[in-house]
Design the sequence.
C-alpha cells in the first residue's frame, strides 16, 4: 500500500477511526500523530469488540507496527490501562509492535484539574471539554514547558522540567483559587 494519511477536519467525530481501521487491514504501520484520549472508537474484528481511545487501531491486527507520535498528548496512566485491557482480550502488545515517540508530551493530573477548573468557572461560556487535560497539555507543549516521555528517564532533567511547569501552573491555579500542586 502507498503511504496514506487520514486527517480529520471536525475535531473528531467524523469517523476517522473507521476509515483508519479499514485501511489498517492492508498497512504495515499505523500511526497516531495528534490528539489525546478524549474520544475513541469501537472496532469489531471477527466478532470481537475492542474499544480504543489512545492506541492506534493497528494494534489489534497482528503483524502491524503501531506508533504513537509526538503530536499526541499522552496520558501515561490511561496508556497503561488501555494496554492492560487489550492484553486481557488476548492482544499482543510489546515494543516490537508498539512504539511511543520519546518527545510525546505527557498529560499529567494537573492538566485535568486545570481543564475542569476552567470549565467550571466560566458558566454559560463552557466549551464542552471532557476534562481530561488535553487542551492544557497542548498549551504546555506549545509553551515548551511540557514533560515529555524521554524526561522520565533522567531524574535531573525531570526535576528541572517540573520546576518550569509548576512555575506556570501554580500561577494559573492561584488565579482560579486552587492550591499549588503538591510535588509529593
Sequence:
Amino acid at each position: 500500500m502507498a503511504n496514506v494519511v487520514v486527517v480529520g477536519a471536525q475535531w473528531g467525530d467524523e469517523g476517522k477511526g473507521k476509515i483508519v481501521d479499514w485501511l489498517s487491514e492492508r498497512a504495515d504501520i499505523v500511526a497516531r500523530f495528534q490528539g489525546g484520549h478524549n474520544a475513541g472508537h469501537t472496532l469489531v474484528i471477527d466478532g470481537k469488540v475492542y474499544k480504543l481511545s489512545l492506541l492506534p487501531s493497528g494494534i489489534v491486527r497482528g503483524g502491524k507496527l503501531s506508533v504513537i507520535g509526538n503530536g499526541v498528548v499522552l496520558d501515561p496512566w490511561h496508556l497503561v490501562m488501555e494496554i492492560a485491557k487489550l492484553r486481557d482480550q488476548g492482544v499482543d502488545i510489546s515494543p516490537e509492535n508498539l512504539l511511543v515517540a520519546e518527545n510525546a508530551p505527557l498529560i499529567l493530573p494537573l492538566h485535568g484539574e486545570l481543564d475542569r477548573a476552567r470549565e467550571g468557572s466560566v458558566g454559560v461560556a463552557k466549551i464542552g471539554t471532557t476534562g481530561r487535560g488535553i487542551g492544557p497539555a497542548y498549551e504546555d507543549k506549545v509553551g515548551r514547558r511540557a514533560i515529555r516521555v524521554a524526561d522520565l528517564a533522567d531524574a535531573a532533567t525531570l526535576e528541572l522540567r517540573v520546576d518550569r511547569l509548576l512555575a506556570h501552573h501554580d500561577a494559573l491555579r492561584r488565579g482560579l483559587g486552587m492550591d499549588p500542586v503538591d510535588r509529593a
Notes: The first helix runs from residue 16 to 24. The radius of gyration is 18 Å. The chain is about 35% helix and 10% strand. The mean pLDDT is 89.
